[in-house]
Backbone:
């Protein structure tokens, strides 16, 4: 595993380890990470922490399992694509750009893909792509 892969794995695996500060350690202060489905950007370590706590509050048992990592080379810097599975039971309020959704008690499982750029061992930008309609259906928010 090269240094670039280690960085992006640390970013994602910190969610499953329930250790957001481990993820923060590899985020540049001016990092812009966009959640494409929500149309929102997380800026820097504070944005990462806020998003982590938002999801953890809604899905306390949530899991993030990295399945594939593709990097642009063997060096420490460059682009990476990370495919991962996100799953959990919504036992807390889910805050979203569409409003707040009360606990449904339902389980969701969805595939994500992150496209990330790393410079000097820190994530400087990224985008998450996933099927938000699938999440909404699984939580009973739409039919």
Residues:
């Amino acid at each position: 595993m090269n240094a670039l892969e280690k960085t992006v794995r640390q970013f994602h695996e910190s969610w499953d380890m329930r250790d957001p500060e481990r993820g923060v350690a590899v985020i540049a202060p001016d990092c812009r990470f966009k959640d494409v489905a929500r149309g929102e950007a997380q800026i820097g370590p504070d944005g990462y922490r806020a998003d982590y706590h938002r999801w953890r509050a809604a899905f306390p048992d949530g899991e993030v399992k990295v399945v594939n990592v593709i990097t642009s080379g063997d060096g420490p810097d460059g682009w990476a694509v990370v495919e991962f599975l996100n799953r959990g039971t919504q036992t807390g309020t889910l805050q979203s750009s569409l409003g707040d959704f009360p606990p449904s008690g339902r389980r969701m499982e969805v595939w994500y893909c992150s496209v990330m750029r790393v410079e000097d061992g820190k994530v400087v930008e990224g985008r998450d792509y996933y099927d938000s309609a699938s999440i909404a259906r699984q939580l009973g928010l739409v039919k």
Q: What stands out?
A: The chain has a mean pLDDT of 94. The longest helix spans residues 44-58. Helices lie at 3-16, 20-24, 44-58, 132-138. The first strand starts at residue 27 and ends at 35.
